[in-house]
Structure prediction request, 261 residues.
Amino acid sequence: MLLTLLTTLAVSAPAREVSCAALGRGMAFAAAPGVTLTLQRVGGGRLRLSTGRSTQTVPIDCFNENIQAVVDDFNFDGVPDVAVPTGVGYMGVNVFARPYFVGRDGTLRASTVEVEVGNSRLDPLTRTLSGGVKNGPAYDIDTFCLTPDGRDLYLCREASISSQGEAADDHDVRWLDPSGRVLLTRLFRPAVRGQRLEVWQVTVPRAYFHAQPVAASRRRAYIVAGDRVEVLELRGTWARVIYTPKTGQSTAGWLRRSDLR
Prediction:
């Protein structure tokens, strides 16, 4: 049955956005060796996701013709996944979707979170999805990280215009754990001394990068006192950061929180 169906579909490389019309015709994507992800709109208001081994059928109403499904590697495992829109916000500016993760063995798993896909981007270096969510005259910035087991996404950082700030671009930034508990809140004031959002400063002579939030995973790379990093995620006594020098390539990894302020 699957082989017969595939003969009627256009097999293509992963695309960022898939229109509702294309889903009506049916789409197929090579996901992993021996695994093909097919997307087919059925009955007008349902979308069938199938890999041959697993099938899920989810609601779809084509409220946004141009972004009705997004195929991308949402959990950074080298296998294309699909995010299916669940709703829109702020007069269509924000498009929220639930990712469905495709396994190399053909399994399908629904994410526990909905993410904004219209104004967001996936970053393979930091393994995060982040972007703007329109909120009144300004944008909040949500960042989603992989859960510690790498099986799902969670909201690890959110930045919003501060109600207590003195300037229009003052931001409250909150770091959260996978359960949604707020770990830390800081006020960032971009207008003060040129401070950029989410920037922390190294306070020790050498702050070594770690591959994991454990001491035994120390790498050779390090940064020095006065260097500035962007903190993406907090986990216990560790902070996952990205360091972007004035020249050269960015570096991402874990630093000890005690080495930063």
